[in-house]
Write a structure and sequence with these properties.
single chain; alpha/beta; Beta-Lactamase; Rossmann fold; 2 domains; 8-stranded mixed sheet; 6-stranded antiparallel sheet; 9 helices; 14 strands
Length: about 325
């Protein structure tokens, strides 16, 4: 355990340390003074609330926030940050969380204990497609294993290739020797200093990337991502929240249309069809995430995607539209 982590979890917060250090725990959820939960082996379990007084909880929040150089106030009563070990946390404060503060900690899975094959028989197909430098969209719900699978795929990138990773909050960890990371920044207390994902993607293209990786696409950065994928960076990847592989394509279309109000759906589909060659949908099956659907995107025909569902053991069967 790092000294920084021990410093953050001292006092009453030390009651959380066994859960923080438990490799089987992926999430910790502290709901003010009233309740607390952990997700272990894919299931939520209620635990004893660690804080019995508001002063204890406020002291813990201060130890999380102060090292980040950020502050919580009535104008912006929420923030994202990282613990000393790199785990991500989200904090939301009263008045918008009347029973708060609410603290959600998402731990990183140790890649040493996870193999690509644990994602099911289709993992080899995905790894081969990534090695062939196909642009891949990884989609699924929260906790479905998108980032974990992306980490494992990046471990397979040849060492002579340069990878540029763009994220809103740093989650990707990879031992690839030539990976560089860019992280978005929120505006400061004075309302200045914001660096959004769109700006980072534009800067990433000036950094001679062989592969570009966007940690999560969920806003205006969709347009910059599609431009990047259509300008000579094969073998790139992105994650996206969606309920299925086809839904992932539709959500990307929606984000593009919202980013470019004057664009037509036909034009958006042409961009997506040129930029994305495979869509991989992941879902939680029991305690471990699995690859549930894969679609190959083979261009457009009469403004409809030419998609080929991959049929492998463990994958859901999908009709060709």
């Amino acid at each position: 355990m790092s000294a920084g982590l021990e410093k953050q979890f001292r006092g009453a917060a030390a009651r959380l340390l066994p859960w923080v250090l438990d490799a089987e725990v992926t999430d910790l959820l502290i709901n003010g003074l009233h309740s607390a939960y952990v997700q272990k082996k894919g299931r939520l379990e209620c635990i004893e609330p660690p804080f019995s007084a508001q002063e204890e909880l406020t002291d813990f929040v201060d130890r999380l926030v102060i090292p980040l150089g950020k502050r919580l106030d009535a104008a912006r009563p929420y923030l994202d940050g990282r613990l000393a070990d790199g785990s991500r946390f989200h904090l939301i404060y009263p008045p918008i969380a009347p029973t708060g503060p609410l603290i959600s900690i998402r731990k990183h899975a140790g890649l040493g204990a996870i193999a690509l094959e644990s994602f099911g028989p289709a993992a080899c197909w995905v790894a081969r497609a990534f090695a062939q430098r196909k642009n891949i969209l990884l989609c699924g719900g929260t906790g479905s294993g998108k980032t974990t699978l992306l980490n494992l795929l990046l471990e397979t990138v040849p060492v002579q290739e340069r990878v540029v990773v763009v994220e809103e909050a740093a989650e990707i960890r990879v031992a690839h020797p030539h990976t560089v990371f860019l992280e978005a920044r929120q505006a400061g207390p004075e309302g200045v200093g914001e660096v959004p994902l769109s700006t980072l993607i534009k800067n990433a293209l000036r950094m001679r990337p062989d592969r570009l990786v966007l940690g999560e696409c969920r806003g205006a950065e969709a347009w910059d991502l599609i431009q990047a994928l259509n300008t000579g960076h094969p073998g790139s990847a992105c994650t996206l929240h969606a309920n299925g592989a086809r839904e992932g394509l539709r959500r990307l279309e929606t984000l593009l249309l919202l980013s470019l109000p004057g664009a037509s759906l036909d034009a958006v589909r042409e961009w997506v069809a040129c930029a994305v060659q495979a869509v991989v949908f992941l879902e939680k099956r029991g305690p471990t995430p699995q690859i549930a659907q894969i679609l190959e995107v083979r261009g457009l025909e009469s403004q409809t995607y030419r998609i080929h569902p991959i049929e492998l053991p463990g994958l859901a069967k999908m009709a060709v539209l």
